[in-house]
């Protein structure tokens, strides 16, 4: 198991995150500015490294090596101008509004530049997605004809003809299709694999193609029979535009000679015998292909690969009211104290949103958790309300946020989503 890098581990929330990670036997590393101070807070079981997220040059291999994920649970620091009690009673009373000011780093430096630096550094060390390249057609020779061969309607009396050609950026499935003699399909198909492909650890197939505007089929076979049950997926192409076609295994249609095989089990992805690409006049059960036309066709293919379900690799705790300053007609006099307080520090919202966008556009699988307000002084309730669109208000305990952060690391459904969260009012 790799290392989870926690940013903000010495905060109240960060300490909860570290504790939850340790309970799940994760290795934990934390970025700190003062090792002695952090050691007193976190103990001896956390790997501490000195770095400053606002300075990219400090995010070295010492910080990033062997990481499997990043949890960001810190924020720019704001303090009450007139001070607070040792128990921070003003901060957590939630009724009166007290003037605050930002101390140390600015929101731009911390909420945006810091996250951008982390994303840039982490992307060089985080494990790549668990894709399995089946065919890389950009690195093949004429030997491809020993693996792929044409299977056209001539086997049923038709006159269509296809072939596969090696071109500069892949292979070209091309030819001429005719509906004469009740024909109307052309295809290329692999010989049965030896050994067979085991794709049981993957979620589906990605095809990188450039087509001619026609609708094609990707076909997968899970038995050795030449004319047995096949599993089919129809996809459209855009003329002369490269696109990635995602084929979830769950969406494959079991067919026998273009007719749906009713009551047929789902494809056994642990026993894949062959792959096929087809252009056909028909869809399924006699329905016509809406984008079929007889004559010349061409489909260029760059690669075929199996894709896995991605686990989140960057967990970001962000303000739930991050977009509220942008809402038209918002009456902030009626908003809770947390919103009015941060409204005074609007730049936090602006740069937090920029930080979120940087992460979302990075290509790193992420989870963005937006609690409305949280503290260790909030009553700990087990029921949560999860929503999206910046529509909920309510506090929650730090421990709940920490649990969500850690749980997201092992939940593929949490990948590339943003959600707001609060505890049920009781």
TrEMBL record:
From the UniProt record, list the coiled-coil ranges.
none
Using the record's annotation, list all stretches that form the NAD(P)-binding domain. Answer: 8-119, 333-411
Gene3D superfamilies hit by this protein: NAD(P)-binding Rossmann-like Domain
The processes (GO biological process) annotated in the record are: NADH dehydrogenase complex assembly
- Residue intervals of the NADH:ubiquinone oxidoreductase intermediate-associated protein domain: 136-301
Quote the Pfam families the UniProt record gives. Answer: CIA30, NAD_binding_10
Mind listing the GO molecular function terms for this protein? unfolded protein binding
What does the sequence similarity comment in the record state about its family? Belongs to the CIA30 family.
**Protein name as catalogued:** Nucleoside-diphosphate-sugar epimerases
Species annotation: Richelia intracellularis HH01
């Amino acid at each position: 198991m790799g290392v989870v890098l926690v940013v903000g581990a010495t905060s109240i929330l960060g300490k909860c995150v570290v504790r939850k990670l340790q309970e799940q036997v994760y290795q934990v590393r934390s970025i700190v500015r003062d090792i002695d101070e952090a050691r007193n807070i976190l103990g001896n079981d956390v790997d501490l490294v000195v770095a400053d997220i606002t300075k990219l040059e400090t995010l070295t291999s010492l910080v990033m090596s062997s990481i499997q994920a990043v949890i960001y649970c810190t924020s720019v620091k704001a303090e009450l101008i007139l001070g607070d009690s040792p128990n921070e009673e003003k901060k957590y009373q939630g009724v009166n509004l007290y003037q605050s000011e930002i101390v140390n780093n600015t929101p731009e430096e911390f909420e945006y530049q810091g996250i951008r630096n982390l994303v840039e550094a982490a992307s060089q060390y985080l494990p790549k997605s668990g894709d399995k390249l089946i065919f890389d057609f950009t690195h093949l020779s004429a030997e491809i004809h020993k693996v792929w061969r044409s299977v056209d309607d001539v086997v049923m009396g038709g006159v269509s003809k296809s072939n596969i050609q090696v071109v500069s950026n892949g292979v070209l499935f091309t030819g001429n299709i005719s509906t004469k003699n009740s024909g109307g399909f052309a295809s290329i198909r692999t010989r049965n694999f030896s050994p067979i492909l085991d794709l049981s650890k993957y979620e589906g197939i990605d095809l990188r193609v450039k087509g001619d505007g026609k609708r094609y089929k990707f076909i997968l076979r899970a038995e050795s029979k030449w004319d047995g049950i096949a599993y089919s997926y129809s996809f459209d192409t855009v003329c002369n535009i490269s696109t990635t076609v995602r084929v979830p295994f769950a969406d494959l249609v079991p067919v026998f000679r273009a007719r749906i095989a009713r009551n047929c089990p789902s494809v056994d992805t642990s026993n894949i015998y062959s792959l096929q690409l087809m252009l056909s006049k028909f869809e399924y059960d006699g329905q016509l292909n809406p984008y079929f036309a007889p004559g010349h066709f061409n489909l260029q293919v760059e690669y075929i690969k199996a894709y896995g379900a991605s686990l989140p690799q960057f967990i970001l705790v962000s303000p739930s009211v991050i977009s509220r300053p942008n809402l038209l007609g918002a009456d902030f006099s009626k908003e809770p104290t947390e919103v009015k307080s941060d409204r005074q520090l609007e730049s936090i919202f602006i740069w937090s949103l920029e930080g979120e966008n940087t992460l979302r556009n990075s290509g790193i699988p992420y989870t963005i958790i937006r609690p409305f307000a949280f503290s260790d002084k909030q009553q700990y309730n087990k029921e949560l309300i999860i929503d999206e669109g910046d529509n909920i208000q309510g506090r929650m305990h730090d421990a709940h946020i920490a649990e969500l952060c850690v749980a997201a690391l092992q939940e593929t459904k949490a990948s590339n989503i943003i959600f707001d969260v609060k505890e049920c009012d009781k």
